[in-house]
Design a protein that fits this description.
Elements: E1 4-10, H1 14-17, E2 22-25, E3 33-34, H2 39-51, E4 56-61, E5 67-71
């Protein structure tokens, strides 16, 4: 069984970067951005919701886009 991967990462787009934007990257063209004080938490919440639809691994990246945390499919719960 292969899991899809969702990345939660700081945005590198200058428009969103200056607003503290975090993006949830699922695939090219599918990467909503959350901005503001709670942007990281909002992005993680969205990723958890999306993970409820199929086996999904969530990778949290830092500003250099290095993986700092991996949330495995069996620990992810989506919408009930």
């Amino acid at each position: 069984m292969s899991a899809r991967i969702i990345q939660v990462r700081p945005s590198r787009n200058p428009r969103w970067k200056k607003q503290g934007g975090w993006e949830v990257f699922e695939a090219e063209g599918v990467s909503p951005v959350n901005c503001g004080r709670n942007a990281r938490d909002c992005a993680l919440s969205y990723a958890h919701q999306r993970a409820g639809y199929a086996p999904t691994e969530i990778c949290v990246l830092n500003a250099e886009w290095d993986v700092v945390e991996t949330i495995l499919p069996q620990t992810v719960r989506g919408l009930v």
